[in-house]
Design goal:
There is one protein chain. The chain has eleven helices and twelve strands. The chain is of the alpha+beta class and 436 residues long. The chain has three domains: 91 residues; 99 residues, PAS domain (Beta-Lactamase), CATH 3.30.450.20; 159 residues, Histidine kinase-like ATPase, C-terminal domain (Heat Shock Protein 90). A five-stranded antiparallel beta sheet has the order 2-1-5-4-3, with helices on both faces. Strand 4 and strand 5 form a beta hairpin. The chain is rod-shaped.
């Protein structure tokens, strides 16, 4: 403000002084000419001479003033253009999405970062209502505008905006007052914090995993003792039962199920504390049949149809722990069983590939998984099941098991058409030792 006032004073001072100087020079020059050449003129001639002197002075003064004002105007326009270019450059180079709008949310400015973040170009939103506000956030924005009007800027508030595809974007928002004369506008600066939100959620998940590890340790301590006692009693009952008795196979299956529960509890503990594993060559066919036998009551209750396509792959061996393979297949088959409706179908396909790998493909005709959820299915504690129906740890444990075996796991799903879970494990070339 002081600079503008000084520039105005300098302009008028220069103009007045230069004009007075020009007039003085014209009159001095005319006096010299008159004294030298027109000393004997009559009164009328002198009168016309004085008039011509005034006209000449006025013309010269007008020419000078016009040139001076035009020059200053060009300088001011050049400075204004430079200032505007600097302003646009700062606006466009800002990493934050900057939007300027009035009380009615009519957009006045929209920088390049806003174009990249929201997808609308400046020409599409200029002099139109701000399109980035979700209906649920309108009340919040009105409260922010009221705060800014009363002199309280909103700084670093986390909120939600939408882009031109209708997708919600988590942003950090600052809302500041911007005045032009008596008119108040609102300067909104937002930055994309979706990655920060994801990292924060991951930290929360890590905290959950730490808590789960501590809880798993307590669970293993409290459950292993009664499970071991139950297993011992069932073994004693099986040993006292004749192998021809119908109860013998039931006790044998119960013994295997209790042993499986023991291993699953230990696996839950190992998920947060990496154990020392001792993999051995395992034939995949018997493992599949053992898990299907364990799940048979659930399959019968749902009247599910299960088809196993193994061809000559049942005897292929992979280097892994049997308990881990059983846990892996139990997780995938349980998920498939939960996804299908009554009388649905599950297919288990074993394929030996030319590059010495075994593919285990478990397919179902269930509800499928939405594309938005597929990218998060292997994340710990992420689940699409209702509260109380799932922990979100199953597929995370499955991925950990497959990674330890040097394999890969993937999900391909289409909503309403089912899911394919494919496990790719390296084949063990060394045959398992035959017990003597």
């Amino acid at each position: 403000m002081d600079n503008c006032l000084q520039e105005r004073r300098w302009f008028w001072t220069t103009l007045v002084l230069s004009s007075v100087t020009i007039v003085a020079l014209v009159f001095a020059f005319w006096e010299l000419v008159e004294n030298r050449f027109f000393r004997d003129l009559d009164y009328v001639s002198l009168h016309y001479l004085y008039i011509s002197r005034g006209v000449t002075a006025s013309v010269l003064l007008a020419i000078w003033a016009g040139w001076f004002v035009t020059r200053q105007r060009r300088i001011a326009e050049a400075q204004l253009r430079k200032s505007h270019e600097r302003y646009r450059g700062l606006l466009e180079s800002s990493p934050g999405a900057i939007v300027l709008y009035d009380r009615n949310l009519c957009v006045l400015e929209w920088n390049a970062s806003a174009e990249r973040l929201y997808g609308w170009s400046r020409s599409q939103v200029s002099n139109r209502e701000l399109p980035t506000i979700p209906p649920a956030q309108l009340t919040e924005l009105r409260c922010f505008l009221d705060l800014v009007e009363h002199g309280d800027p909103v700084l670093d508030s986390e909120t939600v905006r939408i882009n031109n595809l209708g997708q919600e974007i988590e942003v950090q928002l600052s809302l500041l007052p911007f005045r032009e004369g008596q008119q108040l506008y609102f300067l909104e600066v937002t930055s994309d914090i979706r990655e920060r939100i994801r990292l924060r959620q991951r930290l929360i998940e890590l905290e959950k995993l730490t808590s789960m590890g501590q809880m798993a340790a307590g669970t293993a301590h409290h459950l292993n003792t009664p499970l071991a006692s139950m297993l011992l009693r069932v073994q004693m009952m099986r040993e006292r039962t004749d192998s021809q008795n119908g109860f013998y196979s039931d006790l044998q299956r119960l013994e295997h199920s209790i042993g499986f529960c023991q291993q699953f509890v230990r696996r839950l503990l190992d998920f947060s504390r990496r154990p020392s594993s001792r993999p051995a060559p395992e034939s995949i066919g018997p493992v599949v049949q053992a898990v299907l036998g364990f799940l048979s009551p659930s399959l019968q209750a749902k009247r599910a149809r299960i088809v196993v396509e193994q061809n000559d792959s049942a005897h292929i061996q992979v280097l892994a722990e049997r308990n881990e393979l059983e846990t892996l297949l139990l997780i995938l088959l349980s998920n498939a069983l939960n996804a299908i409706s009554d009388e649905g179908t599950i297919r288990v396909r074993l394929e030996n590939t030319p590059d010495s790998h075994l593919n285990i493909v478990i397919s179902d005709d269930g509800c499928g998984i939405s594309p938005a959820h597929q990218a998060h299915m292997f994340e710990p504690f992420f689940t699409t099941k209702p509260i109380g129906k799932g922990t979100g740890l199953g597929l995370a444990i499955a991925k950990n098991i497959v990674a330890e075996s040097g394999g890969e796991i993937s999900l391909v799903s289409e909503p309403g058409k089912g899911t394919n879970a494919m496990v790719r494990l390296p084949v063990c070339d060394t045959p398992a030792a035959v017990p003597q």
